[in-house]
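Q: Please design a sequence for this.
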């Protein structure tokens, strides 16, 4: 019930979901086109189609995390009585168990894919400490952004998100050893380019910044109706009729 409620809150409007996805990928796309590809060519690095598919999956995953956590954005500033509400910060973990048990499990489950995808897509992440630190930093960024909106900021969430990333890494290591029993998990060769070696980190930074800077948490359907006076579904239908007829 908890998971269904959170998923509905995050994705109840398909228009808002598309809008959020565009915010997530726009800076990542510019980074890929304007910087990464040029640097990859200079370093004689060619990436496969499957790698780009994996990046797409990774960005969709980040979108789900951003929406389900209700991260704060620049548009939240000024919507509430104070920019930071200290009573929403919970420094002591596990105060409300077992009431918060479903949310604790969700916080663990939510970042397991992060710990699995990072080393799957980028060999530079095939080290537990780097995955754990990355999971911690992503969780910290989301928790700090929630100071701007009505969501609570909790040390417990930070701990559980980091634990989830660690579990995801161990799942990757388990499957990696099953498929490559004689190959060391730690890669022997690493890129000399800082941008190439940290491609995954840049995607996380730019996807987060895209959501933070461009995503207005007000539902797109409600915003469209308030501005234009008609539901967005009717506007889309009218546009398609003009396009075809």
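A: Design:
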């Amino acid at each position: 019930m908890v998971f269904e409620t959170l998923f509905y809150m995050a994705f109840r409007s398909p228009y808002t979901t598309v809008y959020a996805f565009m915010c997530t990928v726009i800076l990542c796309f510019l980074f890929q086109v304007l910087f990464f590809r040029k640097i990859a060519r200079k370093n004689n690095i060619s990436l496969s189609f499957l790698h780009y598919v994996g990046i797409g999956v990774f960005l969709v995953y980040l979108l789900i995390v951003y929406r389900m956590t209700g991260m704060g954005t620049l548009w939240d500033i000024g919507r509430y009585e104070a920019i930071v509400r200290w009573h929403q910060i919970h420094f002591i973990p596990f105060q409300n168990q077992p009431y918060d048990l479903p949310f604790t499990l969700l916080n663990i489950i939510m970042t397991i894919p992060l710990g699995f995808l990072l080393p799957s897509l980028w060999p530079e992440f095939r080290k537990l400490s780097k995955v754990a630190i990355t999971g911690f930093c992503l969780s910290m960024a989301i928790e700090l952004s929630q100071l701007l909106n009505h969501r609570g900021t909790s040390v417990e969430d930070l701990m559980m998100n980091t634990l989830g990333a660690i579990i995801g890494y161990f799942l990757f290591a388990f499957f990696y050893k099953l498929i490559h029993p004689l190959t060391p998990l730690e890669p022997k060769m690493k890129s000399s380019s800082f941008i190439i070696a940290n491609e995954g980190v840049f995607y996380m930074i730019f996807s987060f910044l895209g959501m933070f800077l461009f995503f207005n948490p007000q539902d797109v359907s409600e915003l469209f109706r308030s501005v234009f006076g008609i539901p967005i579904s009717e506007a889309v239908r009218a546009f398609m009729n003009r396009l075809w007829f």
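Q: Thanks. Anything notable?
A: The first strand starts at residue 89 and ends at 90. The chain has a mean pLDDT of 80.
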